[in-house]
Amino acid sequence: MKKTIILISVFLIIQAIEIAQLDKDEVDVTKLNALFGTNYQGKIYSGYLSAKDDGKVQFHYLFYPSIDSAIEKPLILWLLGGPGCSSMIAAFTESGPFTFIEESIEFEENPHTWTTFANMLYIESPISVGYSYGPDGTQSDESTAEYNLNALIDFFVKFPNFKNQKFYIGGESYAGIYVPTLIQEIINYNEQPINPEVLRINIQGMIIGNGCTDPSECTQLGYLFPRHRLDFYGRHGFISEETYKKIIDNTEKCSFSDKQECQALAYEALVQIAGPKYDFLINQYNVYGKCITNTSEGSKRMQSPLRVSDEERNDSDVPPCVDVKGLYHWFQMKEVRELLNIRDESPKWVACSLNFKNYQINPNGSLYIYPTILKNNIRVLILSGDVDGVVPIAGTLYWIDKLQQQLQLNTIKKWRPWYIPGIVTRQVDKDQNAGNVFDIEGLTFVSFRNAGHEVPAEKRMESKIVLEKFLRQEYL
């Protein structure tokens, strides 16, 4: 009897500690609404997750439980790329319940927020990204995956009501590496869980938007002769027919090559795209979009639309031509740091961390993980904005075809258009073409017409339609 009383007491103490931790992380929505000029009625949690056993690595998280029936809806973790860019960008410009009005510091309600159909979790990783912090030192794709797994386990310990929910991981750009590597860690963890409070992570699927995947895309060797970017710019008429023909004729020979003739050809194309001094303000993230440079920090990072080598990188923490005015205004503010429970140890918030001189990029990309992912019946959704010049649709279609041939995956539904249904603002021809889609075993590809690198920011209604159908396992 005494043992039973002791066990009950210990359980109640642990439960009280967990409740206290959640209370500490809960954001005062009344204060938030007053500061941001919003009218949000749900709960928001912001705090830290331990990404290493010794507690020295702390990742900042932001969590929006769905306002209605949260416990009945899936959980989506969303990561941003870079490597080194903050997922707060996604939370406040893409899928969150309120987002910035373009080129302003003012918020507006997001009628297409994903929080209507899912619980949204955003984690800033790896070390030094956003408000996350830890010891200086070398980081890698592998260490980031381990950190993210530890942080995720800590999240489920903090929020045990969600640990059995259907779970999806998504992200954009370099998250094409982060997401598959984390899923690989989860698969391994589920075979041999080490935390008694989280015996299994209920991973169901992954969502990648314009994501680095093949070794020919976002690796150091791939940048030597960025074949897919060159192909994309050639197809879109940014380089001359003469130069484009030379690129086509030399692609196989020049891929992964630092030969002088290959580098000369790449730079020949670069000058035509961006000018001899990179003086053409081309938005490589949406080649038909405007170039926004209205932040005091500037927009010079990765100036070259081809990133032929590292010599075009400089010390700006703002991606080129990207609208981050609102983010910089608010998230460097003392009042916002206090509101979001940000610790003193956390760095000054910037869009993309500059502390990545020692980041080790795996030269194999992440495509090699896909056979394991598909074998474990984890569904894959690939989104591609068709005017993105950074991780262009040409490369995505290239590696999907390669994967399908390698694994002999059957085509379930062939390439076809998909439509935005019934736009109320149009009196006639309401159903408008939104892109193209095809389905192979375990994987769905969806393109978004006239969308750039960040599909959920530029095509909010369309991305919501696609995500909801994916979660319901329905075809477009």
UniProtKB/TrEMBL annotation:
Provide a Gene Ontology MF annotation, just one: serine-type carboxypeptidase activity
Keywords on record: Carboxypeptidase, Hydrolase, Protease, Signal
Output the GO biological process annotations, alphabetical, semicolon-separated. Answer: proteolysis
What EC number(s) are associated with this protein in UniProt? 3.4.16.-
Q: Which domain of life is it from?
A: Eukaryota
Residues annotated as transmembrane: none
The stretch of residues making up the signal peptide is: 1-16
The record's annotation in InterPro entries points to: Peptidase_S10 (IPR001563), Ser_caboxypep_ser_AS (IPR018202)
Q: Which PROSITE patterns match?
A: CARBOXYPEPT_SER_SER
Q: Which family does it belong to?
A: Belongs to the peptidase S10 family.
PANTHER family annotated for this entry?
CARBOXYPEPTIDASE (PTHR11802:SF201), SERINE PROTEASE FAMILY S10 SERINE CARBOXYPEPTIDASE (PTHR11802)
**The protein's name:** Carboxypeptidase
Species whose genome carries this gene: Paramecium sonneborni
